[in-house]
Every structure is written in C-alpha cells, then in structure tokens.
Amino acid sequence: MGFTASTMRGCAPLTVTLTDTSLSNYPISQYLWNLGNGTILITTVPTLTYTYNTIGSWTMTLQLTDSLGCKQLTTKGPFTVIKPRVSLSVPATACRDEVVTFNASGTNTLPLSTYAFNFGDGNTATGTTSTVTHTYTVNGVYNYSLTVTDTAGCDSTVTGTITVNTPSGTFNIVENQQCGQNTFTLTPNTPGATSYLWTLTTGTNSSVQQSPTFTLTTPGIYGATLITTNSFGCTDSIIADSLIIVPGPRGEFSFTPQSGCSPLTVNFTATGNDIFQYQWDFGDGNVVTTTVPFVTHTYTNTNLTAIPQLIVSGTFGSDSCDANAINLTGTLNVQTISNVDVLENSIVKDTVLVAPGVTATLTAQAQNATNPIYVWTNNNANINISCDTCQVNNVTATGNGYIYITALQTNGGTTCSVLDSVYIVYTPCLAISFDILNDGVAADSVLLQLGTTTTLNAVVTGGNAINYLWSPSAGLSCTNCANPVLTGNGETIWYVLTVSDTSGCQLTDSIRIVGFDCVTINGVPNIFYTQCRWNK
After folding, report:
1. What does the mean pLDDT of the chain come to?
2. 3-state secondary structure of 463
3. Contacts for 361 with CB less than 8 Å, ≥ 6 apart
C-alpha cells in the first residue's frame, strides 16, 4: 500500500500530483486525503492534484476504504513549501523631492536573495540590498512593489501605494504705483496649501497672511518668495526675483581713492536709472548738485572720517521724487599732518647754536596730528643725535650742518608725512648771549635823574662769563663786575659792556643812560613850577 507524489519540495505556490499505488483484492470505494495543512479531500479516484499556497512543511496521509468497508492508512512526507517572507516598510505619504526610504530589512529569506524594487514612477532598483531610498519629483499617487527572489529561485512580491503631495503653484500681484512708492497685494494660487510665509527681498518685509498687502517707498526692483505648507507638512517655495517695481530714481555710487593725505582729491561716479539730478553730500559740510553722474571733490579737512551720500532725483509720469543712492564704497578717510616744527626751550627754531660740551635739547612738534611718529635724519658726521625715532632729541656738535625731522601718521592704511629741518651752528664761544638789565628789567635806554642811582645787571645766557668790562667808568661803582651801581650825573651817556668767557670769546652790548637835573628856588624846590634841564 502506498502513493506517489510528483514533487516533495518546491516554491509556493507548489502544485503536487498524488497517485495511489496500492493493490487491493476488492475495489476501492473511497480515497481520503489528509494534506497535513488542515485540508482533507475525499475522492473516488486514485489521483489528486493539490496546490500549496503557503510555506511550510507537512506530512500527508491517505486512507483507503474498499467495497467491504475495510480501511487502510498510509503516509508520505514531509512535503516542504518554501517562499521568501517579505516585510516592507514605506511611509504612506511623502513630500515632493523628499528622500523616501523603502525598508525591507525584516524580510525572511535566504542569504544573497535579490530585491527588485519598482517605485511606480518609472524608476527601479535591483540588488542584494534590502533597504533603498528614492525621491519623487512629481506629485501623485504611486503604486510600488518589491519582489524578493531567493537563491532557490523562489520569489515573493508585495505591493503598496504612496501619495506624494507638495503644494505648488504661482502667485499674482496687484500694484498701485506712484513715484517713490508702490502699494501691492500678493495672492497665491497654490491648491492644498494650509499656511503661507511671504518674504520680500528688502530683508525687512514678511507676512503669514494668505494675501498680504505691502507698501515700499524706496525706488528699485524687488523680489518675493512664498513658502507654502500643506496638511502633510510638505513645503514648497515659489520665488519671483524681479516682481515688484517701485518707480522713481534708483542708483548707486562709488568713489576712489577711499583714503589719503589732505588735500585729498576724490572722484565720485554714480550709475542708475530714471535720474535727472544728483545731489552729492561729501560728508565734510560741502554739498554739490549736478546733472551728470560724476564729480570731483578735494578734501582739505584734518583727520576726517566721512560717509559720502548721494540723493538722486527722478520722475514717474507727472510725479517727481528723490531717493538715496547706495554707497558701494563706504567710509572715506582723510589723513592730515599739516606741519612739523623743531622747538628749543619751547621756541620754534630754524637755527640752533651748539657750543663745545653743551647739549641742545630739541623737541619735534607736529600740527593736526594724533600720536604721530617722529623720525630724525642726520647725515653729518660733525653732529650727533641721541635717537632716531623719538620726539625729544639731544644734539651735540663739533661742526655745522642740517638735521631733518619727519613726522608720520597712519590712519585707514594711509600714511601721511611732513618734513622740516634745523641748521646746527657750532660755536666755540660759551657766552652765547647776554642782556643788560636796569634794576632787573631789560632795557635799551634808561632815564636817570642827577644824583640818583640804579643797578645795571649783566645776565649771561648759554655760557660761563669770567670777565666784565664796562666803559666809560663815569658814575659806575665798578667797571669789572657784573652788577655795577650807576649814579646819575645829569648827562646822557652810552655805557658799553664787554663780556669774555673761558675760551676767550667776547660779546658786547650797550645801554643808554639819559640824564637830567631840576632847578630849585631859594634852596627850596618849587612845588608849583619846576624847570628841568635835560641834557640830550
């Protein structure tokens, strides 16, 4: 007793033909086939064809019943049905241009099985990778599928749909234009959008209204961007670069150079549209109006930082308006250092006397400068300076010659400089100069009444005097001292003083004494009338 099967193993759906091969002395009246998967079939013929649609492994039983009612059992198995068990995860919705992941990593199949994805938009992907990504570029409902084929040749297919829905469309503009102004309303045509974000290229105008109204007052050409969002959370951007026109003059200007030393001549050039007049404000208090787009201006300011401006004038229809042109260059720097002097004892000097063993202290002083740098130049071997880059310099000499001082100032990458010189005169005489003072006050001429006294003081500058010689001696308390007392004799006399120093140098100065006397009456001074006799 027994039966045969056309196959014992295969891919689902697996069709098996079963044939009874039993021998019986009596006719078989019934065949009861228990297929092992819960299916029982009864036939009156010895052959059965059955298809297994699910995967698994079963043992089949055949029960024979003859005409006498006798029964007999026989089994065969296992019958094995194999097929990949595909598990595919895909989102139900997606946004246009979004990366969508098709994840079949949960599929139960043999190693090295082949995954054939069909995304439903004409694109496919085949390989041994169970997870892939895809981007839909057009809205729509797409039927996708995945067929997994194992190395035994068995395959399994799953299908599904994905809805791609990103809001898209256009928007319209309704404008009310005037010179220097445009009031406009933006209206979207974006089916499916649930929220809106409008942004203008001005950088300061935006709205979340569905149809907002804006007003722009600066002439120019502007763009607008609309970002819409639908109920799936998908967003889309609609961009119009040159949508909005505010009529009127619009322009921009540049200038060169941007910095330099005063006086600085700067060239200004403007470009633009709808302009008939240019009003240039140079930032130094000067304003010029022209009908041409270029102008030259000379800055004479001291250490100026300016931001030049330009107002352009234009028309729209019968209206006229002004607008600020765009400054493409920015800030202008005018650097100034107008003069530099050399001072000795706070006095400006062009010539400085230097004696043997004496140091002259010279100070450089620049005008219209902030924290200048001072550079001294000495090319004379007979002159020595104490420093090259300093404001105060100590100078000694053994001969005559020039030294030079340069003052520099840097601002905004520009360095300005001025130059001065001082002539060093080497004098071997220590007694450089002196003055004759009358009672401590410098004088060239002194009135002295007969019989009265005054002190003549010799004050020497720049040396050590050792000899004094006064001439003439009349009325002087001494002729070889520095401070003789002089008694008036009623006469006018020039007194000459010669001073000599240790090196034998001599200097001479003089002072005039104008003498006079008064007449008395009967030995008593006339207080009502005094007749003075002047000796000239």
Report:
1. 88
2. coil
3. 344, 345, 392, 393, 394, 395
